[in-house]
Design goal:
By secondary structure, the protein is mainly alpha-helical. Helix content is 48%, strand content 3%. Helix 1 packs antiparallel against helix 3, helix 3 runs parallel beside helix 5 and helix 4 runs antiparallel to helix 6. The N and C termini lie far apart (50 Å).
Length: 132
């Protein structure tokens, strides 16, 4: 195992790798069985369920978007767009950051309401034959 030198923190404090918690954190529940096909759909649904269940109580949308399942959905890439757009249409949630991160686009006009943002993304997906 490679040792790292101390990391400097604000205020002159330092922390070394010996001070850090173990890196052996299991991420198995956040991994997909496959990266395409039925495995992708199954994994997507699992992550949507975990995200909603584990962040529904949060008042901060920013904190909800930092949840591992939300980030994992972003990591699924363009293949997940039809699933994500369908989810947005059937059960509107704050998927806008994920959609923007995956596509690099933002079809939502400035000042749009939540409902208008949902409609803008659904229209975007329909124009590209990705959903609905």
């Amino acid at each position: 195992m490679r040792k790292h030198g101390p990391s400097h923190l604000r205020g002159g404090s330092t922390v070394s790798s010996a001070d850090m918690p173990s890196q052996n954190i299991s991420l198995r529940r956040f991994q997909t069985e496959t990266e395409n096909g039925p495995g992708l759909a199954h994994s997507f649904r699992q992550h949507v369920s975990m995200w909603i269940e584990e962040t529904g109580h949060l008042s901060s949308i920013t904190k909800a978007m930092m949840h591992p399942s939300y980030l994992r959905i972003i990591g699924m890439g363009r293949d997940v767009l039809p699933l994500l757009l369908s989810e947005l249409k059937s059960s509107p949630e704050h998927w806008f950051v994920a959609l923007n991160a995956i596509t690099g686009e933002d079809p939502v006009p400035d000042g749009a309401s939540f409902g208008e943002a949902v409609s803008a993304w659904i229209n975007w997906g329909e124009e590209r034959h990705l959903c609905c």
